Amino acid sequence: MVPSELQQRDRLLLATIGLLSYFALSGMLAPMGLLIDPIAAQLDLTDVEAARLLSGFSSGNLVGAVLALFILNWFSYKRIVMTIYTSAASALLALGIVNGPTLIWFLLAGLGLMLGIGLAVAAQLISVIYKADHRAALLVATDSSFSLAGTVMAGLTVVLLATPILGIQTWAGAYLPILIVVLLILGIASFTRYPAPEVATQSWQWLRLLPWPVWSIGAALFAYTLGQTTVLLWLPSALVSEEPALSLGGQAVGRYWMGMFFGQLTAVVLVIWIGRRKVLWLGASGAAAGASALMMTLDQPDVLSLVSLVWGIFNFGALKMLIALATDAVKRLPDAMIPGLLLLATAGTATSPLLSSWVVEITGARVAIGVGVASLVVMALLSLVTSSYVKQSE
Question: Which among 62, 125, 329 has a CA at the least distance from the CA of 220?
Fold first, then answer.
């Protein structure tokens, strides 16, 4: 079935699946810091061992982002969605039963893998069934769902950890809302019609056919997540090693994510009002300028949190605006292009701790933040230059 044959009802249901997919992944990540102590106590582990146990999810997520490049060429959308979320529901149920650290690590890795694939499929589906500004607005809306899940789950986790589930008090009870979301996805997916892939790509020859703007956008996505993660990672350390400063750093990071949520919601409206290209210009420039302003206010605690909040807002969903720009650069959308771009964004986040730690060892946290800001400036330049060469689709 081609996208034009889908009824409006099916488009809305597929968009809902996409939003819930982002909510599920973010909801798994958000409470992990709060779960270290309960896991350590329940399994008789140290905090470090508990943290390593939770790292299984991130490892699986990265593998899932890679696998998504392939499976979209091998199976239908419906088969992929039904399979991964059935497996995710089974793994979530198993987490409430098992007590072996090794088995828990593999269950979390499996969850990360399945939800990572689901994230790529969600972005691909939205890119296929919607065009132009509606596509850009919905891609940004998925990021809003991601941010909202982090906010909701952070609060729910505290309550759920203190509440016995079916008479059993376990750390895995914190993921009950995610199990509900996954089951909801399965319910919606079971009766929704899906589009067929627009291009049947059975080899990697399509990579050679991609125009240079797509490669430039891939580099911009990598620079964006590398810069963002680096600045946020070392912000508390850059404020000196006193407890009040560390608390201020944590507050500033929290304000950034709050700003991101409001900025993403604003971007959804702005895309329809002024167009996705102008929103990309605002977001790319705002991300670089906001990070620069934050770096210059590291010694001004009275305004640091406010600057961080404004920085988050002024991102205006730049990551998804870049992906929308990439879809404008091709006449037909290869199945693996969106997952490939998301993989580059994931790679930027994953490599930031290693690369920036080398900088910190040599020159300190503030220089590392400067490197992060420079990366965001590169992203902004790539975005502005590339967008001037890509014709905007209707």
Answer: 329
> What's the burial of 104, exposed, middle or buried (CB within 10 Å: 0-12/13-18/19+)?
buried
Which of 129, 161, 190 is the C-terminal boundary of a domain? 190
Question: How many angstroms separate the Cα of 14 from the Cα of each of 43, 61, 165, 377?
Answer: 39, 22, 31, 35
Same domain? For 185 and 242 the reply is no
Same domain as 156, residue 116 = yes
Give the residue from 122, 155, 190 where a domain finishes.
190
* Close Cβ partners of 48 (under 8 Å, ≥ 6 residues apart): none
338-380 pLDDT tens trace? 778 878 887 787 777 678 778 877 888 789 899 999 999 999 9
How high is the mean pLDDT in each 10-residue block of the chain (394 residues)? 64 88 84 74 79 78 82 82 94 90 92 90 79 68 76 75 72 89 93 68 56 89 90 73 52 78 84 84 94 90 88 88 83 72 79 77 86 95 88 54
Distance of alpha carbon 209 from alpha carbon 380, whole angstroms = 25
User: Is residue 393 domain-resident?
Assistant: no
Integer CA distances (angstroms), 41 to 44, 47, 81, 90, 165, in order: 5, 9, 35, 25, 18
3-state secondary structure of 31: coil
Q: Where are the alpha helices (DSSP H) in the chain?
A: 8-29, 32-43, 47-74, 77-95, 101-129, 132-161, 176-190, 206-209, 212-238, 243-274, 276-296, 301-313, 318-328, 337-363, 365-387
Q: What three-state secondary structure class fits 165? A: strand
| Tokens encoding 175 | 């993921």
